[in-house]
């Protein structure tokens, strides 16, 4: 048991050790300072030339958002049609079928928004062509989109008063060439050497000990699994994601994938400190997020290591903890750590079946996605946190008797309005979605649909409710993990989560960038003794309180009907 | 509570406030406050449900009594919120009206162009009219003296019993309606239209007719509205959730949950807090022209203060006599006193005072010729009948005089002069028959306690700037001694203006106080311009506040009032939201316990029954509003301990307190309610 926890501590320590220098490097890249990766610049210039981009053209926040949304719209249309016709395209050695329109709609959106909610199984639902040119492609560009939006925010916070926030295309290109590609190359090599397939051949055939002949899916998976984690995407090559022995073969790949999925979110916090030259501010954010993670992580690991009370009641000893749905090569502690990390950041890759986790763990995972900013996804984690900062700044500014200011700019009605709408959006999407499916289940159980609502849930009662709540939470948080046990590949779920995904992605990018842009436009107010500093532990505490209270108030009743009710019935 | 808070809830205001609480139920008025409007709608729904249960006898929605109690409690919640606003308005109005009352029915003696006098009512006076007042008259309107001089008792407005002198021309020509002329006769031109004087504006602000929400109030309303929206979503989606869990939830329970969750505490008190802020300013004898000015005051970064009267007591005073060349000190004092006996400047008087009665009584200047101070000679004095010429004046003026007469200026005196100047004093050299006899030291007397006030301001993050006509050396000394952060020496009116503009360019908010017409541009430029009531009409028009006490240190109080206003809003918002945690723990288990007994685990307060839990939560939610009215009216105490420390303190009291208090409150109420439900 001790070695298991040591493994977790080691993995987290390694992440931090790598994230700090990476943060420094990211800040340098986007400040335009000299770095080792400058050898890429001729290639970047070639891109700009081909695309007809003037890399020196500075954009304001509106132009940035326009560029971001336009290019995302193009990718969405492209991805939808390629998935729809994948059976007619090359690189389909297993002869997989095309996706249905509703599934293609869901899949295209899901990967575009960095969520990777997969209502299909990679082995049968996609071809090597779509895996590479739709899914892997979107995994790169969606991560880069989130990071680029955050860099715009960095630039807005850096200067006293400015409208010039860099060039979106340049930031976006550099995110790919300087950050994502190099990291993915290193990681893919590690994975390939540990047994992850990197081949274009069709299914392999093996004969099991029982003498059955089994087709084993493979493909050029190593590269995709690298960006899936580096870019906090989470969509697996294989259906069962990183619980699959080829996708996550051993403890070395476990450590690699764990470090990879959280390294950029943490590095971005430090990058913020280096970039705007307020290291203390970054440390406080890091502290709040880390405390948040620990609050979710410790009960989860504790519950998983302790094992299931239902089994204990049968008189069965569980020396290895709760092992239902878990891989023996990882064990309960490392799995608990994965569960929490993958839900607080928006990866959503899994190495166990979340459906089988203890109710407390399910509660913590749901909370991780409901908060969605303890580290959070690539770039978007800090954007989400920024919304809470604005609300915290506003309330605490009033509490100390001064018109609220953030980084020397007054926070006024317009900024509060945007922050409030974005903060409101998350519970809105989750609760309305879950309410919709609950309504169908309670009033339209036998509807004459392709998949009858009555067949949606594997489990009745509280657990079934958790499955639905989890699905919409995962969609709104752009997480992508599933509680599973939910029959989700049908029109109702594909379409409803598709809309939740889109809204849950782009509005929380537009909001913070708009606020930062508006603030940067305002007159700079120098700090005085009456100014509330935002780089103190006190302010960190305030932000944490805002996050905790807002999340608790929005979701308490729904959580009470799901995991909390399950917990009290079980213990 | 009543007895100790007599001042907060005066009996004569209670009646009117209670009536107003009902008048304000008008939905057209309520919709301005989205949070309380939601409660009103909820109350209406409960009324319908109660009537339905009464007439149909259907108990699926709970018993008639239970629904009726929920309805009554919700109705009281709305009334309490309205009452908070009404009492704040009534207090503000009463304060303003007591000032106005005096001149309501004052007769005015109007003079037309031909000089004929007609007696009319003050209400008939128009801007530009001229009236006369004599000793014993009450001034019928605000105006400017165009002829004459009078001593006036302004105690009706300032509470200060000592009469003040007002005269035509210059900076002291302005008079306020409602004050009393004690002597002499003046002609006054009316400067404000009836119904437009500062007091009228103030009353209108308080009454809400012209009250506009301040920027912070708007932002907070948005935030509260969005909290309300979140809880609408939470409550509406709870219905399908409950259907899925096969739990019937009564309408009363839904509405109770909703009303408990939305921030009714702050929503109900928000406008009362704003009005109380202006009222507090008025109680400090400051008339504000807008609520925004009070709020801005809390954000001030820089205060411009005149040295004289603000930092130092009036004028310089003599503090020491230094005789030169071994002259007995008593002789020197005698010369000094002789030079000043006929001098009625404050400095001169202070010299006589310092010399003491023992010496001055024996002196006589009968038959002497007074030599007045002129800008050229820069000295004054007296020629005694025996031909002795005594002069006192600035160092270089006396040196020129003595050297011209062929006398040497003693080096000893020169060193003394320099020493005094370096200490922030003003040396006055005294000569007798062009021979230097010694030096009188004049010192600015810094007001007692002013250092502490500046220290307090510094901790608030407000920079103080002293404005003075003194030379930079003296200014620096006084600035250091008084503890101001910066000074403008040898200041001309334009310097103030430039300083304000410079600070504003750097993004700071600046306040200043002024009284003269030449201050008007700077008063208008400053973010908060406080004109003294004794100042000219131009100054009063330019500023956005008028201080009735003419007390320059009032700015400090104004800053605190502004900060208190914001803090009260912030802390009560925090308190209101933090309350929801306990209410959830009361209501959520109550909603589901019938169908999901396991959720008894969430009933950590061990409330008696679902009905009693829900009732306790709504009752707590209602009574917390009147309990917090005193706090809303008085404001949260401001402590200059630095922003972070203040946040910690308030977070602890109102955040943590806001979480803990309702747990205790709801449990206690439940103990009582459980006797019935």
From TrEMBL, chain A:
Write out the transmembrane intervals: 6-27, 67-85, 128-154, 175-193, 251-274, 281-299, 374-398, 418-441, 491-520, 541-565
Q: Which UniProt keywords apply?
A: Cell membrane, Ion transport, Membrane, Potassium, Potassium transport, Transmembrane, Transmembrane helix, Transport
Compartments annotated for it: namely: Cell membrane
Identify a single GO molecular function assigned to this protein.
Answer: potassium ion binding
InterPro entries membership: KdpA (IPR004623)
Keyword Transmembrane helix assigned to the entry: answer is: yes
Q: Is Transmembrane given among the entry's keywords?
A: yes
Fill in the subunit field for this protein.
Answer: The system is composed of three essential subunits: KdpA, KdpB and KdpC.
Which family is it part of? Belongs to the KdpA family.
What protein am I looking at?
Potassium-transporting ATPase potassium-binding subunit
| Originating organism | Chitinophaga skermanii
From TrEMBL, chain B:
**Regions crossing the membrane:** 34-52, 64-84, 218-239, 251-273, 584-607, 613-633, 653-676
Instruction: Output the Pfam families linked to this UniProt entry.
Output: E1-E2_ATPase (PF00122), Hydrolase (PF00702)
Going by the entry's taxonomy, the superkingdom of the source organism is recorded as Bacteria
Domain spans labelled P-type ATPase A = 106-207
Active site positions, chain numbering: 306 (4-aspartylphosphate intermediate)
Q: Which UniProt keywords apply?
A: ATP-binding, Cell membrane, Ion transport, Magnesium, Membrane, Metal-binding, Nucleotide-binding, Phosphoprotein, Potassium, Potassium transport, Translocase, Transmembrane, Transmembrane helix, Transport
Question: Record's HAMAP family?
Answer: KdpB
Q: What is this protein called?
A: Potassium-transporting ATPase ATP-binding subunit
- Taxon lineage: Bacteria, Pseudomonadati, Bacteroidota, Chitinophagia, Chitinophagales
